[in-house]
Design goal:
19 strands, single chain, Diaminopimelate Epimerase, Chain A, domain 1, alpha+beta, two-stranded antiparallel ribbon, globular, 17-stranded mixed sheet
Length: 291
C-alpha cells in the first residue's frame, strides 16, 4: 500500500464505523481509497470491520466544518448516516474544543452538538414524505405503502436523506429479518432500494426497532432509521413528537420538532464511543475482494 492509511474506530449504540481522515487530500490524490480497498477495510474477518466507512475531507463551500463521505461494506457510497455523523462530530469537536459543529454530507449539512451529559445530538434535517421524494415507483399514500412481506403490510415510508420503509408490528423480535430484509430492500416499488425497519410499541411508550440496512444487512443500530421511525410513529399516531427508539445496540431519543407543519426538523440524541486507533498494514492488499 503506497500511501499509509490511519484510522479511528468508533460506534454509536453499536452501529460501528471506521473513520479515515483525508482532510489534507493525500489519500484521494493518490487513489489510496479505491472501492476494493474500502471494501477490504470493512470486511469483519479479513479487514478492520464496520457497518460503514467514513472518510473525512474539507468542506466544499465553507458552510460546514468537515465533509463526510459514507461507504457501505461493499465499498459503494450512500447519502447519509446519523450515528456516523454523531461519531465524526464528537471526534472533530474534541480536536478543537468545540461544542457545536457542522458536518457536510452529500445529503446536506448536519448541525451537531455536544450535550452536558456527554451525548451528541445531530440535526437530521426535515423528513421528506411525498411518494416521489422517497422515491417510489408510483404515486401512493406514504402512510400506507402498497408493499408487503406476509403477514407484514402497509408500512410507512420516510426519506431522511436516504429512503426508509417502516413496518409496525406486534412483536419485533419475532420478525425473520434476515429473510424479509433483503426481499423488501429490493422491492421494485423502491427506486433506490431502502432501509427496512420493524417496530414494536412497548408498554412504556418506547419504540423497539430492528433494522435491515440497505447494502449492509442487519445492524445493531441505524441513526437515520431511528429518525425515520420517530417520524413514522408520530404520523401513524403511535407516539408523540419525542420518542425513545430502542435498538439492538442501545437507545437514542428522536425529537421531530413542531413547526406547525410536517416539515419540522428531526433531532437525534445518543451516546458515542471510540474503540481504537491504528494504521493499515501493507498486507491488506492480500485480502482485497471483488465487489
Amino acid at each position: 500500500m503506497s500511501t499509509p492509511i490511519s484510522f479511528t474506530k468508533g460506534h454509536g449504540t453499536g452501529n460501528d464505523f471506521v473513520i479515515v481522515d483525508d482532510r489534507d487530500g493525500a489519500l484521494s490524490h493518490t487513489g489510496a481509497l479505491e472501492r476494493d480497498t474500502r471494501a477490504a477495510m470493512a470486511d469483519r474477518r479479513r479487514g478492520i470491520g464496520c457497518d460503514q466507512l467514513l472518510v473525512l475531507g474539507k468542506p466544499s463551500n465553507g458552510a460546514g466544518d468537515v465533509f463526510m463521505r459514507v461507504y457501505n461494506p461493499d465499498g459503494g457510497e450512500v447519502e447519509a448516516c446519523g450515528n456516523g455523523t454523531r461519531c465524526v462530530a464528537a471526534l472533530v469537536m474534541g480536536e478543537g474544543g468545540k461544542d457545536t459543529l457542522g458536518v457536510e454530507t452529500v445529503a446536506g449539512i448536519l448541525a451537531s452538538t455536544r450535550n452536558a451529559d456527554g451525548t451528541v445530538s445531530v440535526d437530521m434535517g426535515e423528513p421528506r414524505l411525498e411518494w416521489d421524494q422517497i422515491p417510489l415507483a408510483r404515486e401512493m399514500d406514504t402512510l400506507s405503502v402498497d408493499m408487503a412481506y406476509i403477514p407484514y403490510t402497509d408500512p410507512v415510508a420516510v426519506n431522511m436523506g436516504n429512503p426508509h420503509v417502516v413496518f409496525f408490528v406486534d412483536d419485533a423480535e419475532a420478525v425473520p429479518l434476515e429473510e424479509c430484509g433483503p426481499v423488501l430492500e429490493n422491492d421494485p416499488l423502491l427506486l433506490q432500494r431502502a432501509n427496512i425497519e420493524f417496530v414494536e410499541k412497548k408498554a412504556d411508550g418506547s419504540l423497539r426497532m430492528r433494522v435491515w440496512e440497505r447494502g449492509c444487512g442487519i445492524t445493531l443500530a441505524c441513526g437515520s432509521g431511528a429518525s425515520a421511525v420517530g417520524v413514522a410513529a408520530y404520523r401513524a399516531g403511535l407516539s408523540g413528537r419525542v420518542s425513545d427508539i430502542v435498538m439492538d445496540g442501545g437507545m437514542v431519543t428522536i425529537d421531530w420538532q413542531d413547526d406547525g407543519t410536517d416539515s419540522g426538523r428531526v433531532i437525534m440524541q445518543g451516546p458515542v464511543a471510540y474503540v481504537c486507533q491504528g494504521h493499515l498494514s501493507d498486507e491488506l492488499d492480500q485480502c482485497l475482494r471483488a465487489v
